[in-house]
């Protein structure tokens, strides 16, 4: 007996339904592993930060790369957060050409894409500063820090 699978091809040419099933299975598996627990903690912390009152003047734009760059961020965490480590996060300045572009802490797009081999789609943030557009992994600008 032949198995049939319904397939939906999206505009980008990916096989959406099969990928969705695989992602659901990965998410269920991830809840039990180190990377999954780390990502869950990050989501909780991100939600807490977004619940804070908005900044006033002179702050006009606030980027949340864990929202719009979640795919490459997850890829980074799943690749490099596999074993326990002693780590202390004191805070991060994502920079307009680093984490703000890729969702990967400390990484400008070229290094994230070519050296770390991180992949994933980056969406546009809801409010984008005209001088700091989010180009994702295709960003050609480099962080100066």
Automatic annotation (TrEMBL):
Gene3D superfamilies associated with the record: Uracil-DNA glycosylase-like domain (3.40.470.10)
Keyword DNA repair part of the UniProt annotation: yes
Region (Disordered): 1-34
GO biological processes: base-excision repair
Compositional bias of kind Acidic residues: 16-32
InterPro entries: SMUG1, Uracil-DNA_glycosylase-like_sf
Domain of life of the native organism: Eukaryota
Coiled-coil parts of chain: none
Compositionally biased spans, kind Polar residues: 1-13
Keywords from the UniProt entry: DNA damage, DNA repair, DNA-binding, Hydrolase
Gene Ontology molecular function: DNA binding; oxidized pyrimidine nucleobase lesion DNA N-glycosylase activity; single-strand selective uracil DNA N-glycosylase activity
Keyword DNA damage found: yes
Residues of the signal peptide: none
PANTHER family given in the database record: SINGLE-STRAND SELECTIVE MONOFUNCTIONAL URACIL DNA GLYCOSYLASE
Protein name: SMUG1 glycosylase
Organism: Himantopus himantopus (Black-winged stilt)
Encoding gene (name): Smug1
